[in-house]
Each structure stands twice: as structure tokens, then as C-alpha cells.
Design goal:
Shape of chain B: globular
Number of domains of chain B: 2
Number of helices of chain A: 15
CATH topology of the largest domain in chain B: Rossmann fold
Helix content of chain B: 25-40%
Number of strands of chain A: 18
Distance between the termini of chain B: 26 Å
Distance between the termini of chain A: 38 Å
CATH class of the largest domain in chain B: Alpha Beta
Strand content of chain A: 15-25%
Shape of chain A: globular
Low-confidence stretches of chain B: 299-317
Largest sheet of chain B: 5 strands, parallel
Structural class of chain B: alpha/beta
Oligomer: heterodimer
CATH superfamily of the largest domain in chain B: Aspartate/ornithine carbamoyltransferase
Largest interface: A-B, 19 and 27 residues
Radius of gyration of chain B: 19 Å
Strand order of the largest sheet of chain B: 7-6-5-8-9
Order of helices and strands of chain B: HEHEHEHEHEHEEEHHEHHH
CATH architecture of the largest domain in chain B: 3-Layer(aba) Sandwich
Mean pLDDT of chain A: 96
Chain lengths: 445, 317
């Protein structure tokens, strides 16, 4: 059974002419004509060499870049239960607008996705509403309570991509061990939100000089790092497959390296906000900068960038976490944790890391697509006979985040108001056109 | 000044301007009729989301001595208890046309949010563990009355600095006025990161003899259940301010309410070196000065900046 789900749409018939094609895995890095027939890449040829046949839309890609579309292993679509924040329709529209062709939704909804029947219902909804393909994680523990394992094998049969209690740590080492033993039976990645609740306490931001100055309760970096060290040992002991979510601290990168050196099968992700922002942003007490794990120090940020660059951290995940305006329009301590990220991930990282020369464009595209393989999904690629999972991006365009609203139902974006470079013009997911930037669609018609 | 949200927003000149206005109001307080008509017809709303005795009553008295109408809104028994958001409460109260909203909140930054939602001037009467600027101003006032100046003055703040908005505001205010500030207490309650505020950090009282002024903070009982302290008895043994630890020349302050026999001994509270009652007395006149200052910032702002005491004065006769 395929583990990604979207609403069926007519397959794309497109000729993308003269776009600069960049696929880090195939060493393709030059202008090409790319012909998509029946949703599949039919031909890749020298720029300007292909003629469109009847029924094929021609898109002028000159001066634009064509990448394999991105894959996000960590988003919150809030459905079921909190559709005032986001749902399958708006969340996947946001993904498409950000250049994503596939996303992985977390199970900390209301109710929690901890039973096969709930998962089947959600998958049925995705087949009607989703604009890009969605994979669904199921909970490790019933109700995320950290006490009793879910019916993991049955959840896998119902279509679960893997398991996570994201939003909460698996505090009990014993329970995590049992989940990893069960993983041998049913497969599926186990993704972990790492946090020691006795260390984070009632913390609302990174513990450091800024929390001390503001009088806000802090979450120390060791809250995350000690748990990664612990769970790296457990994963190694059981031979299990573990993915560490949203790393935020230097100590966590070090714990990851140690676990891997001992042979544990562990991978990790990092979010754009942890790569681009620090605790300093919290001085404004703007609730858009409240997330978990929190924005940390400059030294942590530098360690995360270095780890992403050298591949220690394999992929970027947005941890797209929508919250309604009313929920975030409260004092910092009272606000829920989370920032949206799907619509801004590429542009923010391109502006913040690629333009200054910190990361190459090819590396960024690689890290934005690498989540697929980690979650046992097909990696998007620009190659003949591949399903068309593509995004066309104008690297020269600039825009102010939020100035013309968001595709997401929520506006709690930590990059809101920032001037970013690069704009997604067109996204194809699963062979279907799922996004066109408005002005671009007009000019292309 | 439009609002008073944090000591950080004030420079030394502004602090001195407020304090000289307070000194003027202190003279008025010695007269048989303690009221001035400056705020006649103005509305001051005290919006308190946390229990408070001295701050709320001194703001109320300050507003009344300025002849303002005062509306007290407390969290219990109001729409706040029925789940109304801060934003909606402020919008509702703003419809009454207040000139000043004085707010105390358990949450850092709440006064800044309120300032964005109302036309009234906003005064922070304590937000979470963040700031309590009028307390710091009245403490500077009391010290200046006693010492003339804080320049070069060595001030120690002792106790639960981590959870204290008073400490954060006072450190900033004392430093702005030229004092050298040291915070001291157990490492669980006085993390070294506090040095970022520009103060020294100590974990023992070994050198407290160097201090000219020692400022004790209230120790909350709940700190023990949260594992910050093993026991009050042990805390008192190591950090209690008493006449054995302090010399008679050292001045003693406390923001109140006091736990007698815990952070400070009873005999020290009642001694002549204690400024605690002066702090309470100063609360009214400093808050009168703050109310006048924020209102002058909105209505009768003088570019020269020296207008405030004058603007209140002519109406006295």
C-alpha cells in the first residue's frame, strides 16, 4: 500500500522551456527543456530544442530555476479537531505554495491518531482534500500519554508512515524500547520529539541570558541533548530506526554524532527557524517567536548550520505549526508554541544561508528533499520516466512575507514582515499541477 | 513619555524628572488637604490580574490625590474569570475612555500588548517576573532622599532574584543612577546569566559588608515545592538578613510583603536602618508623578521636557 495520499487531479501536460534545472542527485545544473506528459517527465533536452505538441501547455522558464519538489517530514495539519488553525486543504495549499510535493503530518490532533479507524478516516479525507501528497504518522502511545503502546501493526496496515508522540517526548525509556522492538514486526520510522520534562519544566523559551533578563522560565539545551543521548543508546541497543525531530542545540548534534558512531540507525532534521533565528528574537516578546524546541543561542545556530552543511543533520523540516490569531494574540507566556513554515522555508533559507554563501543552492535543495528517503518515500528527482515532482522558482523575485496573506489558515509565521528573495512560481506534485503563483499564472497563460 | 512599561525605556534624565515631581507631591502630602486638582475629570483604570495590596492601593490613592476618577478591576469576580481574553477586556474598558490604564499581569509583556490596544496611557504595575518599574522608581526615590545620590553607591539585592520582577527593574534603575549592583543568593535562584543585566553575581553573603544598601527580596513558599530550595530553615541560615550579618550603617530595603524571620529578621525590619516604611510612603508620591508624566506625554508634552512639574503646579492654588 502506498503511504502517501492526495486528491486525484488530471495529470499535467507541460513543456517547461529553458528553465535552469538543478537536481543535486543527478548533477544536472544547467538550462534545459523539460517535457511532462501524463504527469511523467517524458523528455529532458537542450534548452530551446523541444516543441510543444497539441494539448501541452508551454511555460517559459527562462531565467527561472527548476528543482525536484521538496519533501517535509514534519508538519501539523491540525485535522481532525483544530480546523480553525489549519486543515488538509489549507495546509497542503501552503505546502504547494512553498514548493513541496509531499509532507508528513503529525498525529497530535484532537483526537490523537492512535487508532486505525481514526487513521482510515483521515486518509479518506486526504484523498478528497489534499493538494500535495500527505503521509500520516500515528502515535507511539495511546493519547500521547506515554503509557501504553498503540496498535502499531494495525496502524501500519491502515497506512501509517511511522510513529511519533511529537509535541511530547517519550519519557519512559522502557516504553520507547518496547516500541522499537515492535518496529521489527511492523516497520515504520519512529520519530522522536526529544525533551526531558523535568528539565524543561514550565519553560517558555531558551534558558540563557535573554530568559534571565526577561524573567521568563527557561528550557535548557540539555533538556533536548540528554534525551538524544539516551535514545541514541536505546536505538543502538535494539537496532531500531529512529529519527530525531527538530534539533535545536549544539549538544544535540554532538549526541547524534556519538550515537551514529556507535552504529545506531539514527537520522535528524532541523527547522528553518532554528537555522536563522536565535533567542535574541524573543526580546520583543512577540509570540511568533515562541516555539518548542525554543530558539537558542548563536553558538547553537552555528552548530546546526555546520551539521546541515556536512550532512550530519540530513534534512530540513519546517515543523509547520499553525495557530489562530486569537490564540497567539496573548502575552508570550500564555501563547501556544509553534510557527508556520511551509510557505517560507525555501525562501527564508535561500535568503539567509545561500545568498550570503553559507550554504550552496544545491546543498539546500538536497536537504529539502532528503526527508523522503529517511521516511522510506521515493525521492523526487528530475529524470526521464520519473513522476513529475517539480518546483519552478524565481530566485530573483523578492517579497514581503505575509503582505498578500498566506495560503495557510494561520498567520503565525516567524518570518512575517521580512523581505525574502525567491518565489515559488509553479509546483507539480505526483504528476499534477498543485500550485501556480497568481501573477505568474496570468503571464504564462 | 507615552507609557511606562519598563525601566529599560527610561534614561537618567527622565528618571530624575519623575523623581523631582514626586518630591513636589511629597510636599503636598504634608499639607492638611492632600489633593491636587490636576486630574479632575480624568479616568484611571486599575486592571489587576494578580493579588496586590500596596501597589494597587497606592495607585488608587495616587490617582485620587490627583482628583481623578478611579475604576478598580480585579481578575476575580470579573469577566476575566469567565474566560474573556486580555484583548477583549482591554477593548471593553477602553470604551469607557480612560486616560490611564494601570495593569498588573502574571505575564511578561502584557502591558506592552495593552498599549497597542488602547488609546489610554499604560503604566506597568508588574508583569510576570519581568518588570515592576514604579517599584524601582520609588526605591530610587527613597535612596536619593536618604543619600542624596546613588552615584558610586554599592547596592546588594539578596534572595530569589530569578523569580523577581522587582529585582530586574531595580538592577536596571540603580545602575542607570550610577550605583554598583550585586545580586546574591543560592545558585538555583541567582543564575550566573543574570550578569547580562550588568550586575555582579554572588552566591554567598561573605562580602556583604561592602554594601551601602542591602535590598531583601520576598521568598515565596512555593519555591520549595519546585525544588529550588531544600528548606526555608536552611535558606534563612545562609541568606537571612539580620543584625549579625549587617552593620548598623548599612541601609535595608524590602519591597514587601515581608516574611519575618525568613529572608529578613524582625529586629532588622523594625530597626532605624530599615527604609521599608519609607518605601511604602514613597509609593504614593512616585506613582502620582508617574501618572502625571504619562499624561503629560500624551496631552501637554513640552518639547523642553521640563514641563511636567510646572503643568501640575499652577492648578494648585
Amino acid at each position: 500500500m502506498s503511504s502517501l495520499f492526495a486528491a486525484p487531479r488530471p495529470p499535467a501536460e507541460l513543456l517547461l522551456r529553458e528553465a535552469h534545472v538543478l537536481d543535486p542527485r543527478s548533477d544536472l545544473d544547467e538550462p534545459r527543456d523539460v517535457l511532462v506528459r501524463n504527469g511523467v517527465i517524458a523528455e529532458i533536452a537542450a534548452a530551446g530544442s523541444l516543441e510543444a505538441s497539441e494539448g501541452v501547455e508551454v511555460i517559459d522558464g527562462a531565467g527561472k530555476h527548476l528543482f525536484p519538489a521538496f519533501v517535509d517530514p514534519h508538519v501539523h495539519l491540525r485535522s481532525p479537531g483544530e480546523e480553525h488553525k489549519e486543515d488538509l486543504d489549507t495546509g497542503t495549499r501552503a505546502a504547494a505554495a512553498g514548493g513541496y510535493c509531499a509532507i508528513v503530518a503529525m498525529p497530535n490532533t484532537t483526537p490523537v491518531i492512535d487508532h486505525p479507524m481514526l487513521l482510515r478516516g483521515l486518509i479518506a479525507s486526504a484523498k478528497e482534500q489534499a493538494h500535495v501528497r500527505v503521509g500520516f504518522m500515528a502515535a507511539i502511545s495511546v493519547g500521547l500519554a506515554g503509557e501504553q503502546l498503540t496498535e502499531m501493526a494495525q496502524l501500519r496496515d491502515a497506512g501509517a508512515l511511522g510513529f511519533t508522540d511529537d509535541g511530547k517526548p517519550v519519557s519512559s525509556a522502557g516504553l520507547l524500547r518496547r516500541a522499537l522492538q515492535y518496529q521489527q514486526l511492523c516497520g515504520g520510522v519512529i520519530a522522536l520529539h526529544e525533551e526531558d520534562a523535568t528539565l524543561s519544566g514550565a519553560g517558555v523559551m531558551h534558558e540563557g541570558a535573554v530568559s534571565a533578563a526577561l524573567g521568563l522560565a527557561g528550557i535548557p539545551a540539555i533538556s533536548e541533548s540528554t534525551m538524544i543521548a539516551r535514545d541514541g543508546l536505546i536505538a543502538g541497543h535494539e537496532g531500531g530506526r529512529v529519527h530525531f525531530q527538530h534539533l535545536s542545540a549544539r549538544g544535540s548534534v554532538e549526541a547524534l554524532v556519538q550515537a551514529r558512531a556507535r552504529g545506531a540507525r539514527v537520522s535528524a532534521e532541523v527547522s528553518p527557524h532554528h537555522l536563522l533565528l536565535t533567542e535574541e528574537a524573543v526580546r520583543t516578546l512577540d509570540t511568533r517567536f515562541k516555539m518548542n524546541p525554543p530558539l537558542r543561542g548563536e553558538d547553537d545556530r552555528a552548530a546546526l548550520i555546520a551539521a546541515l552543511r556536512d550532512g550530519t543533520i540530513e534534512c530540513v523540516a519546517t515543523d509547520h505549526a499553525p495557530h489562530s490569531r486569537d490564540e497567539k494574540t496573548v502575552p508570550f507566556e500564555a501563547a501556544p508554541m509553534g510557527t508556520t513554515g511551509l510557505e517560507t522555508a525555501f525562501a527564508a533559507l535561500y535568503t539567509g544561508l545561500v545568498l550570503p554563501g553559507t550554504l550552496t543552492l544545491a546543498c539546500l535543495v538536497e536537504r529539502l528533499t532528503a526527508g523522503a528517503a529517511l521516511f522510506e518515500l521515493e525521492t523526487p528527482t528530475v529524470a526521464v520516466d520519473s513522476e513529475a515532482n517539480l518546483c519552478l522558482v524565481d530566485l530573483e523575485a523578492s517579497w514581503r512575507v505575509g503582505e498578500s496573506g498566506y495560503e495557510s489558515r494561520s498567520a503565525n509565521c516567524c518570518f512575517g514582515g521580512q523581505e525574502l528573495r525567491s518565489r515559488t512560481l509553479l509546483t507539480l506534485a505526483g504528476g499534477q499541477v498543485c500550485y501556480r503563483e497568481r501573477s505568474f499564472a496570468l503571464s504564462a497563460a | 513619555m507615552r507609557h511606562l512599561l519598563s525601566i529599560e525605556d527610561l534614561d537618567r534624565d527622565e528618571i530624575e524628572r519623575i523623581l523631582s515631581a514626586a518630591a513636589f507631591f511629597a510636599d503636598v502630602a504634608d499639607r492638611p488637604i492632600k489633593k491636587v486638582p490636576s486630574f479632575r475629570g480624568r479616568l484611571v483604570i486599575n486592571l489587576f490580574y494578580e493579588a496586590s495590596t500596596r501597589t494597587r492601593s497606592s495607585f488608587e490613592l495616587a490617582a485620587k490625590r490627583l482628583s481623578a476618577d478611579v475604576l478598580n478591576v480585579v481578575a476575580s469576580g470579573s469577566s476575566v474569570e469567565k474566560g474573556e481574553s486580555l484583548h477583549d477586556t482591554v477593548s471593553t474598558l477602553s470604551a469607557y475612555g480612560p486616560d490611564v490604564i494601570v495593569i498588573r499581569s502574571p505575564h511578561a509583556g502584557a502591558p506592552g500588548l495593552v498599549a497597542g490596544w488602547t488609546h489610554a496611557a499604560v503604566v506597568n504595575a508588574g508583569d510576570g517576573k519581568h518588570q515592576h518599574p514604579t517599584q524601582a522608581l520609588l526605591d530610587v526615590y527613597v535612596l536619593r532622599q536618604r543619600l542624596g545620590s546613588l552615584e558610586g553607591c554599592d547596592i546588594w539585592i539578596v534572595g530569589d532574584v530569578l523569580h523577581s520582577r522587582v529585582a530586574r527593574s531595580c538592577v536596571q534603575a540603580f545602575i542607570k543612577m550610577g550605583a554598583e549592583v550585586t545580586v546574591a543568593g543560592p545558585p538555583t535562584l541567582v543564575p550566573t546569566e543574570l550578569a547580562a543585566l550588568g550586575c555582579n553575581v554572588r552566591h554567598t553573603l561573605e562580602h556583604i559588608g561592602e554594601a551601602d544598601v542591602v535590598y531583601a527580596l520576598r521568598l515565596q513558599q512555593e519555591r520549595m515545592s519546585e525544588d529550588f530550595l531544600p528548606s526555608l530553615r536552611e535558606y534563612a541560615a545562609n541568606y537571612q538578613l539580620n543584625s549579625r550579618r549587617l552593620k548598623a550603617r548599612q541601609l535595608v530595603m524590602h519591597p514587601g510583603p515581608v516574611n519575618r524571620g525568613v529572608e529578613i529578621s524582625g529586629e532588622l525590619i523594625d530597626s532605624s536602618q530599615s527604609l521599608i516604611i519609607e518605601q511604602v510612603r514613597a509609593g504614593i508620591v512616585v506613582r502620582m508623578a508617574v501618572l502625571v508624566e504619562v499624561l503629560s506625554g500624551t496631552r501637554v508634552r513640552d518639547p523642553g521636557g521640563q514641563r511636567l512639574a510646572v503643568s501640575a503646579e499652577p492648578q494648585l492654588a
